Amino acid sequence: MTTQQLPEPAGLRARRFRPAEQGVVLLLGAAATISVLITVGIVFTLIEEGSGFWGSVSLVDFFTGTEWFPVDRVYGVLPLLSASVLIAVLAALVAVPIGIGSAIYLSEYADERTRRVVKPILELLAGMPTIVLGFFALESVTPALQGAGIIPSDQLFNALAAGIVVGLLIVPLIASLSEDAFRAVPAAMREGAYGLGATKRVVATRIVFPAALSGVMASIVLALSRAIGETMAVTLAAGTQPNFTADPTEPVQTITAVIVAVSKGEATRGSELYQSIFAIGLVLFVVTMLINIAATALVRRFRTVYH
Amino acid sequence: MATSTPTSADIPAARPLARKRARPGDQIFHAAVFSALLIALAALVWLLISVVAKGATALDWDFLSSQTSSRASRAGFLNALKGSVVLMIITIAVAVPLGFAAATYLEKFAPLSRDELRVITRRRRRALELRRAAGELTGPRLLASRLGIALSAVWARIGPPLNTFVEINLSNLAAVPSIIYGLLGLALFVQIMGISKSLLAGGLTLAILVLPIIIIASREAIRAVPRSIEQGAMALGASRWQAVRSHVLPAALPGMLTGTILAMSRAIGETAPLVVVGGVAFGTAVPSINPLNAANEDLFAMPLQIYTWVDQPQEDTWGPLAAAGIIVLLVTLVVMNLLAIWLRNRFTRRW
Question: Could you give the C-alpha distances from A127 to A25, B71, B202, B264, in angstroms and in order?
Fold first, then answer.
């Protein structure tokens, strides 16, 4: 668009210039800038407060070490990172089938009234404080797993119970974003398939699902990022024992759980332990950032626009 | 080319329509997706039942009105309740003005393109020259106006790319794990600014945490007001800010408040950032509900108190207290959500 297309007021006296209003707009703009300052603040504090740590612990040891044992000054991030990933994967195993199944039901099968009742209930699950889910994992899920003989009855903490409740937490996220993606598929595509004799199942699995795949994938990736950053449920249910394992029945300690454990213990500023939580916080921040960028790229790359 | 209408002779005689065939595959699929939803709902019901079963006995007036204590039989939720009230007041006081202002800017002033900004600058310059020629502008006022115009010329160049950057940044911020905000609060408020590990530090941290959520929700509410409202006002001579202030914002306000309440219901349940900022509550003094004194009050909050209780080794004595606390927290959340829904249904206008 060129400037010529916007005519200037010719005979009219031009609108008066109001400096006070420019000031107001400036203030509004300043408020918007705060969101940038927050990002800068996060990156700055994570790097600055953890800077001493990178001086005293070698990067290679940090990223390849399979033990996290601050008392002996052994800082290997792998057991923490693997625990975070393990719980996110367990959560996805729970949440992906339930979330996508619910989304298909709500968008293809349910009538309007059911949807109006069910969606706010699912949102209630999404808004559940994670401390409540932690309590639930500890009080109900773990005893149930013990009862089923999946984990030993003398062992309270395990990755599985944490993974299950985090899975419940992200079900609504996957369900709601996937349902949006399913409903964005034009009705004409469904009608066409029905016209050719397809059944509801065929329409859902062969027409709607592939057409909405990018949205579904993005919802899963966003849910994974949420699961990796999840803190309280994981801290309470998975334990406080750094453990480099892929066995879901064992106790593990995630990045977030270490940060909570150290914060509870009042580490003094400048100590290596204090610096270490900013170092692993930086790792967590970078990992979730990368996942979010991947989700955005995924949507942009594979989105099909229907008219 | 002659077209002939097909006659019934051209169409093969229709077979009688087959009766609807039973399709086991379809029935199984239907049952599978339905049970997926049922499992999600059943888990929610199981959660609620196990919390109520555990906490109902501990939940009484004594529980709500007693201070926290190291003896389970005497411990109550009063510190946590008052702490959460103060935290909410601080969070709202900081995050709502900033969030509404940022949303207004991003939705109504930032989208102006470079060309539009240039035209505005040129109009202002012409207006200035006209008024100067008429002798209306002299001395310092002339200088101030010139400066303002120079600034808006610079802004026409750098503004649009900056605004795009703010957009991207905002969507990323909303996805940052809450515990990272805790680390920011600990470093910024407690260590660098020297605020003690108090309600004030906790409230400011929560304000930073919910700010992106409030901005995003408020923008949606502002976007829902049709552009014609604003354009109508501007056609009658209002400036853009006048149109936004007196027409767009009043119409968008119910939606913005709904978004704010939902953001607050997120903040009131947050535990992780508070643990990182304040550690686990060691103090015993009941906070006063006076936000101005918040810098001197120990950090108490409902989720923090619940965490302290869940984390105790003797599960049998502390478990019911934690469950009772959870019931109070969940009731608060449900009330806030109902309020948001009511607000949305009562005041939102359909255009």
Answer: 34, 32, 20, 11
Q: Cβ contact (<8 Å) for A132 and B326? A: yes
Phi, psi for residue B187 in degrees, rounded to 5: -70, -45
The full DSSP string for A111-166 is: -HHHHHHHHHHHHHHHT--HHHHHHHIIIIIHHHHHHTTSS-TT----HHHHHHHH
Locate the domains of chain A by residue range: 71-302
Q: Which of A231, A266, A290, A291 should we substitute to test contact with B (largest number of B Cβ atoms within 10 Å)?
A: A231
Quick one: pLDDT at residue B19? 58
Instruction: Compute CA distances A137 → A127, B65, B252, B306, whole Å.
Output: 17, 29, 41, 14
Domains detected in chain B = 61-108+196-347 (1.10.3720.10)
- A14 to chain B: which residues are within 8 Å by CB? 123-124, 126-127, 130
What ipTM goes with this model? Answer: 0.88
| Tokens standing for residue A127 | 């808004």
Average pLDDT over residues B150-164: 80
Q: Which residues pair with A69 in a beta bridge?
A: A74
Q: Which residue of B has its CA nearest to A263?
A: B276
Of A220, A227, A221, the closest CA to residue A84 belongs to: A227
Closest chain B C-alpha to A240 CA, distance in angstroms: 12
**CA–CA separation, A84 vs A163, rounded Å?**
10
Q: Locate B99 and state its tokens.
A: 């969030």
B199 close to B297: Cβ distance less than 8 angstroms: yes
> Can you list the alpha helix ranges (DSSP code H) found in chain B?
24-55, 61-65, 78-104, 114-133, 139-173, 178-185, 199-223, 227-235, 240-243, 249-268, 272-278, 302-310, 315-347
CATH class of domain segment(s) A71-302: mainly alpha
Tell me the percentage of chain B whose pLDDT exceeds 70. Answer: 91
Element of type H or E holding A68: strand A68-69
Q: What are phi and psi of A66, to 5 degrees?
A: -100, 10
Tell me if B113 sits within 8 A of A3, measured CB to CB: no
A105 shares contact with chain B (CB less than 8 Å): yes
Q: Residue B261: CB partners within 8 Å, gap ≥ 6?
A: B336, B337, B339, B340, B343
CB A78 within 8 A of CB A244: yes
Terminal Cα-to-Cα distance of chain A (whole angstroms)? 25
Higher confidence at residue B96 or residue B240?
B96
**Residues of chain B with C-beta less than 8 angstroms from the C-beta of A284:** 177, 179-180
Smallest CA–CA distance from A98 into chain B, residue: B36
Residues A205, A208, A209, A214: what is their CA dihedral angle, to the nearest 10 degrees?
170
Closest-approach residue (CA) in chain B for A107? B33
Mean pLDDT of B238-245: 90
Helix, strand, coil percentages, rounded to 5, for chain A: 75, 0, 25
B322, B68 contact by CB (below 8 A): no
- pLDDT band, very low/low/confident/very high, at A304 (cuts 50, 70, 90): low
Three-state DSSP class for residue A4: helix
- Hey, is the C-beta of A76 within 8 angstroms of any chain B C-beta? no
Question: Which H or E element spans position A260?
Answer: helix A255-264
∠ CA B270-B275-B277, nearest 5°, is 105
Alpha-carbon gap, residue B100 to B112, rounded angstroms = 19
A225: nearest CB among B50, B175, B239: B175
